[in-house]
Amino acid sequence: MGTHTEELERLRFQHSLWRPTAQAAWQRADLHLGQSVLDLGAGPGFAAADLANAVGAQGRVLGLERSEVYVASGRRMAEQAGLHQLELRQQDLLKDPWPREFFDLVWCRWVAMFLPQLEPLLAGVDQCIQPGGRWLIHEYVHWDTFGLHPHGRAIQRFGRACQRSFREDGGDPDVNRKLPGLLHQRGWQIEHLKPIPVLGNAASMAGQWMERFVLVFGRRLQQLGHWSADDALEAQDEIARAQAEPGCYWVGPTLLEVLARRL
């Protein structure tokens, strides 16, 4: 997705939108003071900082992130906020050794969908969780729900182009169709599965989030050859129309929350 300034700001906005959803999920996973949490694919550390506040000074949060730029940004943020219980570490989840310590909770959002192999992720988490520990996963289960209604033909093509780009890189945009079954096979108990839809009109945070995604990632799709300049212009016209017509609304890819306990 890139680590440029515009993408960083998009992620900041994304965090503001999804923060209440994440915090509600953490409550369902019984996150509390003094716990240790492993945040996989921590990005610039926005969620990791919230987790650090939730576990308090007596707790611990370790965020693993591949991007050196995001790790540096997150470390600065943690230092400025005085979050000494938060550590951000640069790591490739598929290649680098996993931490040799145990955590009460593993948090994973929009990470597995980009991985060409799931076994290193599954084995790594197995290594970091003792019996009774939980893994909370927010990954997509139905990317085809992405769209702008009632028109949005170019936006629909954009959604298909996104999925092609993810799959060509070895990922799976609907990876949460697989993960519960794979966890069960490895001896995890699935405590619950919860679908999480996201939708809203152009003035809503959800609508603005999806609009920004089209504008920012659309340029990357053009570079990859999945999206054309004409497609982009048509999408911009549809976005402008949605802003002018209150009856138009965005629907995002359907997220699935998986909460699993290690037996």
Which descriptors would you attach to this protein?
21% strand, 263 residues, globular, alpha/beta, 10 strands
Global outline:
globular
**Averaged pLDDT:** 96
Order of strands in the sheet with most strands: 3-2-1-4-5-10-7
Structure summary, number of beta strands:
10
Q: Helix content range of the residues, please?
A: 40-55%
Topology at a glance:
Layout: H1 5-28, E1 36-40, H2 46-55, E2 60-65, H3 68-81, E3 86-90, E4 105-109, H4 119-128, E5 134-142, E6 147-149, H5 153-168, H6 179-185, E7 188-196, E8 199-200, H7 205-224, H8 229-244, E9 249-251, E10 254-262
Parallel strand pairs: 1-2, 1-4, 2-3, 4-5
Antiparallel strand pairs: 5-10, 6-9, 7-10, 8-9
Describe this structure in words.
With 263 residues, the chain is an alpha/beta fold. The strands form two sheets. Strands 3-2-1-4-5-10-7 form a seven-stranded mixed β-sheet, sandwiched between helices. Helix 2 links the parallel strand 1 and strand 2. Helix 1 packs across helix 7. The longest helix has 24 residues. The model has no long low-confidence stretch (mean pLDDT 96).
Write a concise synopsis of the structure shown:
The chain is α/β, with parallel strands linked by helices. It is built from 8 helices and 10 strands. It has helices at 5-28, 46-55, 68-81, 119-128, 153-168, 179-185, 205-224, 229-244, and strands at residues 36-40, 60-65, 86-90, 105-109, 134-142, 147-149, 188-196, 199-200, 249-251, 254-262.
